[in-house]
Amino acid sequence: MSGAPEAGPSPDPAVDEHQLSQLFDQLDGDGNGLLEQAEVEAALRRLGLPAGAAYMAEWQRQYDKDASRTVDFQEFRRYVQSKERRIRAAFRSIDADADGQLDAGEVHAAAQALGLSVAPGEAERMVSMLDADGDGLISYGEFRRFVVMLPGAQLTRSNIMWAWLDSSDWLDGMEYRLGHMPPSQPLERLLAGGVAGAVSRTVVAPLERLRTIMMADSNAGRIGPVLRRMWADGGVRGLFRGNLASVVKVFPSSAIQFAVYDACKDVMQHFSGPGARSLSTAQKLGAGMVAGATACAATYPLEALRTQLAVAQAGSGGAGYLSLARLSLAERGVRGLYQGFSAGLLNSSCSMALGFASYEVLCTQWQRWRGTPPSTEERGLCGGGAAFATTGLTMPLENVARRLQAQGRPGFPRRYSGSLDCAAQMLRGEGLAAFWRGSLSSFAKVVPSVAATRLLYESIVELRGIGGVRRYRADASC
Question: Name one GO molecular function term (predicted).
Answer without folding.
Answer: calcium ion binding
